[in-house]
User: Fold Phosphotransferase from Sesamum alatum.
Amino acid sequence: MSLTVAPPVLRSFHSGRSSGRPPRPRVLMTVRSSNTVSAAPILIKLQRDCATPLPVLRHVADAMAADMRAGLEADGRSDLKMILSYVDALPTGNEKGLFYALDLGGTNFRVLRVQLGGKDEHVVATEFEQVSIPQELMSGTSEELFDFIASGLATFAQKEAGKFCLPQGRTRELGFTFSFPVKQTSIDSGILIKWTKGFAVSGTAGKDVVACLNEAMKRQGLNMRVSALVNDTVGTLAGARYWDNDVMVAVILGTGTNACYVERVDAIPKLHGPNSKSGRMIVNTEWGAFSHGLPLTEFDREMDAGSINPGEQIFEKTISGMYLGEIVRRVLLKMAEDARLFGDCVPEKLRMPFSLRTPDICAMQQDSSKDFEVVGSILHDVTGVSPDLITRKIVVDVCDTIAKRGGRLAGAGIVGILQKMEDDSKGLVFGKRTVVAMDGGLYEHYPQYRSYLQDAVTELLGPETSKNIVIEHSKDGSGIGAALLAATNSMYQH
Ligand code: ADP
Ligand code: MG
Assistant:
């Protein structure tokens, strides 16, 4: 049966969309009455459950600040691990010489070299290469994996020429970005707690990964040593700080999410041992594990229950790229089952977990064509069904609801960090220009998400204070950041 639906029904579907965009042209269309009429209550309930009005944002920001404090007191006191990085000297721009970086965090590793020329010349030259790690090495022995990496580094180092120049008699120095959980006790050592992300290498857990790499480089006859072990968030902060002295916080929004910031050592009760020369240290919050006061839905709870780490990483599961598409898929599946969104049959493909990816929901939100053609073709790929116009509009509204909640909560988390820093140092954060360096594929490629994040920060801080807080993209800063930290922690004097 077909029915002509008048604009008022359409308008109500758009009530949750962001303001400031021109209204779409009103069109009369032919739709199946059953799906759209009964999908509307599911959408409205979703928008209500995902709503992030100012009091919710404020609660999240306050809880983030409180959890940070608890995590700084002692290990195990908080959802937030507040891992000490032992990075107490940040790049100044004066660094000079040749430095290397290695980034190991997934199925590839990246090697990079940079020639630094100090205040006047800055970055004279950089080069990098990417090497994929053979599957069998990801479940082999520790020695095999580190030998493979060291041999990749040795091959790369052999090609050092042109503007890259190592003074006679010097050992090459390397910043090692290692995105697996480690327990650090100094800037150049860290015990692997466990492998994650598909790695099951035997014989590394409980060992110092810096020693593993240093020994492998020695076996390869490579004259190089690790000067700094960092995680990617810390690398991003260092990379951005090199160009801008006001950078105090770094946030990654990619497949997962994390944040770090510059803390005063006298605000870290759990720090024992050698005092930092600068009186400051970068703290890695591991904020993906935050969980307080988040507006969650049945779809989040079901996704969490079916995940490999139920009950963990709840903030990450609400705001990061790995999950946004999957939450939308779960909503659409319910709409298909309970409201026949895609017609009489529920598309089988829609039942497959993670079949709708965050880049898909992002692409659907960019569709400005009158008939939502891109939305139609993505939905066709994902479900095998060609949905009518009103269905496409509902889907876009679902995407918007989930991206809006994610972006706004990420913004509230950032304000929580800034608030904590401000409370300890009255005026030194909100009273002057302070920069938050952002990186990661989600932040880089999803404009609506980015603007929802900024909106939340502005709403929470108010118009005056938010003028001082600059949230800016620092693309791929983490590789060069690790090399810069190798420079800052060089065994040679500058
Ligand atoms: P990683 O976090 O794995 O180190 P990236 O920072 O490159 O890598 O982020 C990749 C993630 O960014 C993807 O998993 C995806 O969730 C998200 N992403 C990539 N492209 C887009 C896009 N066009 N729109 C929205 N999200 C995207
Ligand atoms: Mg990354």
